[in-house]
Specification:
A three-stranded mixed β-sheet has the order 2-1-3, covered by helices on one side. The chain has one helix and three strands. The chain has one domain.
């Protein structure tokens, strides 16, 4: 199981390095991962239903169009 977690982390790092303006990266395993290179304002999780501490409408996410699902 740790191999899969490492693969997802590596995917987020590689795509995050190229997309520093995106707060969240969608992995090929259909999970949202924080972009370790993002340095903007705090952005809530793309699937979060609450709007308590983050500004509405500022979610910036990156989706790889090559993912088949």
């Amino acid at each position: 199981m740790s191999y899969l977690q490492e693969a997802v982390q590596e995917y987020a790092q590689e795509h995050g390095r190229d997309n520093r303006d995106c707060a969240w990266i969608l992995s090929p395993f259909d999970t949202w991962e924080r972009n370790p290179f993002y340095e903007g304002p705090a952005v809530r999780h793309p699937e979060a239903d609450c709007e308590d501490e983050y500004e509405v409408g500022v979610a910036t996410v990156c989706v790889d169009e090559d993912i088949p699902f």
